[in-house]
Design a protein that fits this description.
Jelly Rolls; 8-stranded antiparallel sheet; 247 residues; mainly beta; 2 domains; 5-stranded antiparallel sheet; single chain; 3 helices; rod-shaped
Amino acid sequence: MATWAGTTGKFITNSTTPILGTPASGTLTNCTGLPISTGVSGLGSNVATMLATFSSANIRTACSDETGTGSLVFATNPDFAGATSRAQPLTVSKLTQYEGFSAGNTSAATSFINGNSVGSQIYAANTTNTGMVVKVRAWAQLNNFSGGGTLNISLYLNGSSFVALVPSTTAGYLQAEFDCTVRTGTLCRAQGILHQSGQGAVIADSGALSWDKTVANTVDVRFKFSTSSVNNAISPLGVNIETHYQT
């Protein structure tokens, strides 16, 4: 029997490539080998190509309302080239020193940041772009400055200092602000301003500083008395380091 078909029976054939026609219904649970490109109807434009080769380019081609080009991003710290579509700069908190401490009787450069902090001072390699601004804000109480000498409050990048701010007051509160703008893949420039109780602001500019985006970069703010004395003491109260990605 070459072929037999009934209204309720089974289809019987000795052909290896039978033509089934259009069945009224069926279940394909155990079927394999259905080609997406020719065997599935109702797909949108380029969807079959996307399913066959699931790449960023093919996903973008299959979309009808995408914006821009490029590859999908799944990194926790993606490196975006060029501007992002935001009305304001994207601000990312990097580090917060949340509890103060006291230090004095030393002429060593001492960080405002100690164990009472959350976050990291280190920007990992390839996580910064040209136009990014590192904003450092530090607050301190100058307890005593009668031991002589000078006091510098400095921004440090990768261990090198930008000596910016020398308080003219002998006691009171200090607020140091530093903005470091990444200008190229290897350079940045910083400006600093110091606000102090009862005194005028102190302003300084760094000129070109080294900032290599291909390696890790470390940011710090430190104070340094030129004279070690028990009568020279300061209490750093807090530090914020933020990153602004400009648009």
